[in-house]
Design a protein that fits this description.
By secondary structure, the protein is mainly beta. 9% of the residues lie in helices and 34% in strands. The protein is globular, with a radius of gyration of 15 Å.
């Protein structure tokens, strides 16, 4: 699979507690990596049961969410930008990693320490669900 090569940035947002009806896809500004951060074009992202539980409101007392909020933590993609101080990844690096409430997007910025190199033998779909 080749990179999406899109300039448009979109993201899934949770608009409030509930089921899938609280999810919407919105246009967002393309993020810019800062010091120690990497900009990744997401090729695949997973979802796990805890993310469903958060959206359903099961952790209302433990998490202070301000809606709308992103969804997703596990992802795989291609590095399209690096911030100052990042030497472990370069543009074009294939990676997998994790973030908090935001992997379901076309582009995400994450700390470089949240990434590892994607093994060539893994499909994007498998890599996007592993972390």
């Amino acid at each position: 699979m080749s990179p999406l090569r899109t300039k448009n940035a979109r993201a899934v947002r949770i608009t409030g507690y509930g089921g899938a009806e609280t999810l919407e896809i919105v246009d967002v500004d393309r993020p810019t990596p800062g010091e120690g951060e990497v900009l990744v074009e997401v090729m695949a992202a997973g979802i796990n049961h805890v993310e469903d539980f958060v959206r359903e409101g099961r952790y209302r007392d433990e998490l202070d969410l301000e809606f709308p909020v992103g969804q997703g933590s596990d992802f795989a993609g291609i590095v399209v930008g690096v911030g100052a101080g990042v030497s472990s990844f370069a543009r074009g690096s294939e990676v997998l990693g994790h973030t908090t409430m935001g992997a379901h997007a076309t582009f995400i910025v994450v700390p470089a320490r949240n990434l590892v190199a994607k093994p060539a033998s893994l499909s994007w779909e498998v890599a996007g669900s592993l972390f």
